[in-house]
Amino acid sequence: MLSLSLFAFLFSCASASASEIMRRNTTACNNSPSLCSLSYGEITHLGAHDSPFVRDASTDYSDFGNQYYNTTVQLSAGVRLVTGQVHKSDNEWHLCHSDCTYLDAGTLESWLSEIKAWLDDNPNDVVTVLLVNSDDATDSELGAVFESANITDYAYTPSSTSAISSWPTLQELIDDGTRLMTFIASLSSNSNAAYLMDEFAYIWENPYDVTSASNFSCLPDRPSTVSGDTAAALSSNRLPFMNHFLDQDIGLGIQEPDVSAIDTTNGQNGTGNLLTSADTCKSAYSGRQPTFILVDFFDKGPAIDVVDKLNNVTDATGRVAVPDTNKEDDSGSTTTSSGTYVGLTELVDDVKSGANPSVGNWIWVGGDWGSILGGGITF
Ligand SMILES: *[C@@H]1O[C@H](CO)[C@@H](O)[C@H](O)[C@H]1NC(C)=O
Ligand SMILES: *[C@@H]1O[C@H](CO)[C@@H](O)[C@H](O)[C@H]1NC(C)=O
Ligand SMILES: *[C@@H]1O[C@H](CO)[C@@H](O)[C@H](O)[C@H]1NC(C)=O
Ligand SMILES: *[C@@H]1O[C@H](CO)[C@@H](O)[C@H](O)[C@H]1NC(C)=O
Ligand SMILES: *[C@@H]1O[C@H](CO)[C@@H](O)[C@H](O)[C@H]1NC(C)=O
Ligand SMILES: *[C@@H]1O[C@H](CO)[C@@H](O)[C@H](O)[C@H]1NC(C)=O
């Protein structure tokens, strides 16, 4: 029975001696040792669609938000691709959803600095940024913002300006310190910032404007040179990018995420579920798994479970559960193939109310994962 001893443990663990604590496995790459030796292009990266556009107290739960938690929380929970739209506002480059009057998530520089800080703190992780270049910023303009955010040292520069047949492994990217992959949709020239990769030179995508759960499609949509032609897309060596988010028409041609269907859309059963869609696309691509899967409200489903399945990951390590502080997303614990992860708030609430948190769950305390046992927590 967990009781006061759990509290005592929770609040004293920061001073626990090194011998009592088994540190998380630092040999993992993107949360799993099994991924280190695999090519960046051969594994599946979970993507948070419109990562900086958050539906939480800070935006008054804006309908223009596509995620419940910010980019730092997303990355810590296992997201490895973050997308956003860059717009020009007051002569600065901002991240805005459709238009800066709808949802302005601040400057691109501030967001890149947030990602830079996360990369500093997580030396075994490779992160991909995809920016929609809504107001046609040049490579020099974007490059200047990347410089100001002091993130260019991490940026990977491709060996070619066209599709690459063999990308480095995660371990190679980690060893080289080039753990930031940057794609821009689109960029006419990158001669002043070679690490800014023109998205559709390297990637092809399936359709994204889906408003019916039965209408998800694996067919290539962009770039137009491979549209509708899976064989051409595959043989072009571009990376398969699977959009998987469901919108609903709310009239006047405006679409917003279909939140009511999100558990199915990001889940593993029901019409339009993520697992079936991913498996269907993998088959359609002759066994090639999508390199990227892009979802709204990434913590629902949870989408990461499907990505773990595609990556054959059963030993995920170092993930931090979402904090369970969003009143519109109070699902609490997150269950993945490697266990159930609970937030501290939820655990404390459980203990206060006399409930016994499930034995075998994991919790992140003081920088380490702890496993909840019958009488307390072990690290
Ligand atoms: C860390 O991962 C390596 C490689 O899979 C494994 O051999 C080792 O036992 C792991 N260490 C811990 C402490 O889990
Ligand atoms: C992200 O969200 C978490 C949890 O709400 C918060 O603690 C943190 O300060 C936020 N980070 C940024 C950079 O906004
Ligand atoms: C920029 O980041 C590097 C590490 O990536 C760090 O060593 C350096 O101090 C940073 N520079 C500034 C001005 O913050
Ligand atoms: C679903 O796809 C079909 C065939 O492409 C199309 O005719 C139909 O309009 C789509 N339905 C919706 C709601 O988008
Ligand atoms: C649907 O999937 C969830 C987990 O994602 C599982 O708990 C549930 O049992 C499944 N339902 C059916 C009918 O398979
Ligand atoms: C996972 O296993 C499947 C089935 O063996 C295989 O097709 C796929 O390439 C593997 N993926 C990774 C990332 O290891």
UniProtKB/TrEMBL annotation:
<feature type="signal peptide">
    <location>
        <begin position="1"/>
        <end position="18"/>
    </location>
</feature>
<keyword id="KW-0732">Signal</keyword>
<protein>
    <recommendedName>
        <fullName>Phosphatidylinositol-specific phospholipase C X domain-containing protein</fullName>
    </recommendedName>
</protein>
<dbReference type="InterPro" id="IPR051057">
    <property type="entry name" value="PI-PLC_domain"/>
</dbReference>
<dbReference type="Pfam" id="PF26146">
    <property type="entry name" value="PI-PLC_X"/>
</dbReference>
<dbReference type="GO" id="GO:0008081">
    <property type="term" value="F:phosphoric diester hydrolase activity"/>
</dbReference>
<dbReference type="InterPro" id="IPR017946">
    <property type="entry name" value="PLC-like_Pdiesterase_TIM-brl"/>
</dbReference>
<dbReference type="GO" id="GO:0006629">
    <property type="term" value="P:lipid metabolic process"/>
</dbReference>
